[in-house]
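--- STAGE predict ---
source: upstream dedup step, 1 unique chain passed
mode: sequence only
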Amino acid sequence: EEGDPIVLPCNPPKGLPPLHIYWMNIEHIKQDERVYMSQKGDLYFANVEEQDSRNDYCCFAAFPRLRTIVQKMPMKLTVNSSNSIKQRKPRLLLPPPESGSESSITVLKGDTLLLECFAEGLPTPKVAWDKMGGDLPKGGESKNNSVDTLKIENVSYEDKGNYRCTANNFLGSATHEFHVTVEEPPRWTKKPQSGVYSTGSSGILLCEAEGRPEPTIKWRVNGLPIERNPFSGDVISPGEISFTNVQPNHTAVYQCEASNVHGTILANANIDVVGKHVCVLSHLSHVLPFVTLWTVDVPDPPENLHLSERQNRSVRLTWEAGDDHNSNIKYIVEFEGNKEEPGRWEELTRVQGKETTVVLSLAPYVRYQFRVIAMNEVGRSQPSHPSGHHETPPAAPDKNPQNIRVQASQPKEMIIKWEPLKAMEQNGPGLEYRVTWKPQGAPVEWEEETVTNHTLRVMTPAVYAPYDVQVQAINHLGSGPEPQSVILYSGEDYPDTAPVIQGVDVINSTLVKVTWSTVPKERVHGHLKGYQVNWWKTKSLLDGRTHPKEVNILRFSGQRNYGMVPSLDAFSEFHLTVLAYNSKGAGPESEPFIFQTPEGVPEQPTFLKVIKVDKDTATLSWGLPKKLNGNLTGYLLQYQIINDTDEIGELHDINITTPSKPSWRLLNLSATTKYKFYLRACTSKGCGKPITEESATLGEGKYAGLYDDISTQGWFIGLMCAIALLTLILLTVCFVKRNKGGKYSVKEKEDLHPDPEVQSAKDETFGEYSDSDEKPLKGSLRSLNRDMQATESADSLVEYGEGDHGLFNEDGSFIGAYAGSKEKGSVESNGSSTATFPLRNSFNFNMNLVSIS
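--- STAGE serialize ---
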């Protein structure tokens, strides 16, 4: 029924992307706030109208790469009119109702995020988007479908968060929250490097990748998992391979594979191991006093790590340098001790030059172990053997949580969240968070609560009230530093007061300016986002016909007390209301304000046609404008000569003062001349835009109009008479020739009445009917059958004669040859006489029949 929602499914076939879907009947289906095509191709109607009734809704799926368009079978939609259309508040169709009030979406970094939100309801709901706890990305909101789609291109990690769509009409609202998570396929931060090593040397391959979730790293040797080809003495970890005592069998292709749920990347490194070389010189021509040969390689790993000067927050690490292999080196000090990632070595500091001792700054409550790596221009050495353990005592936290914020919540409620401390920042056992709060600036005691997780729900006595909030880290050893206060607001509620409309100023027939009084801040109950103007047309002043209530919505952001409302219908009566809205939603509407728009100029006529032209006259016909925008007073008809020259003729005006007149005949035009016609509809406010048409008067016939009646032309009548006369002569000649006197030959009689056995043999010999055979006229076959029966019954010698003579009399003539042809040769059919004539054919029994009426 009219006003109901409906979804027309498309279900396109799978194919090579990209896939383009569009809906058509005789033309493309127009999409707006009421009609929307989803990303899957389904066509949604928020509420159907009688004009939606069609039997040719077709979904087309286009695959450009395949150069293929697939069409779904047409669907019929019938909308029955209803005397009482029930208005209703919005209900979300997208996302589907079964998904609930929230859903989670994962999007890859760099991709495009598309969120859909479409609601049914009457009046048609308006959809708005906002990001909870932040602002929408600039340019992210897709405007082409009345913001039913939120589109964010080139997504970054900053785009993660909670997005909310709200569908509103004056009866209520519906919301849905999207929890967007941004993830990323693996990408390299450090690839393994190919290298050439000498036998007995050491080396290292590093492989590091980033992604969300964190990639898993695996090693392969010549395409096989490295676990199948272990080398004694090598140290293998996810991020590196450390070679010791390289041998020729280390020569291989080493492949690092980083993967997560979104993909896999590979990087190869070629390791070549060369043996010792001996150079031999013979036939020396002279003797050099000395020869110097420098060889370089990765340094040997440091040795004999020693810890001294142990303090609560520091320790001295000393080591012995290995061979630098003729290249300047520096050292990398790494540690292991993170409780969140045991076994993972992290870089702590770097030591420049040839220093072999360093004082390390440490964190409390960590059991440290250290190792040192030497590095030169060739590469890194193998890590040294780990040092002994050094455990720092626990202490109070050194820092407090960061990024304290409030999550969207219900009225009189705060959900406080923060970033928890990492394991290396906790400094001791028993980590907790002390949360304190009080109304901003109020001389009251702080309220306090201690929690172990990183969120806290607090009930407040006031709606959208500012609070000073502090979060401090504490453990068994004490509290962290004095926390800084942040200002957070308790949950919002809907505004409870409506603005008061102060006036509506009519600017012109389609534009008005609305002014209103603002809502007091304490009555907004939240962060005021702006004001919303609702208006609907109640009746046309032209015919007094009332219109169903279809509410239009326009929002003005910020604190303001006026707004311009465009695109109104001229010469109509409207009702208008104003309301305030915040992040929670819209408040109550003001009392309706009634105003009327004045007359305007009409739209252009729906069509203009030249229905008849002569050498000096032209008759034009037109249709009424779709929107009159007032009382029609007449038309302005203009025309001018536009022959194929650089000059155009003078513009002539004709005022047609009869609004109901649908056509006009122009006189005294020039023959063989091309004209351009302009027609404008007019009201008391003036004339609207023109519709144009071109045509030419007759003469040489070059510009004969499309609508001329060819049947009235003299040359055409003469041609038709000549054709009719020739046809009559031809038919008369054929009739006379076929009806000459004389007897038919025996052979022709045999052809007319074949022996059944002979005919059967012929059928077996020549097979089926061929299109190359002569074809009898359909209407004459029944006449032929009647003639055959009559001839056979009239022959008294049939029952006595033998096979070859049964159809002949004593003189060998065909019995009834004349009687059968002349007496039985015509049959009445619908008042026309049809004559049948036998013809001779050497192979098949066929009849060519001529019908003369």
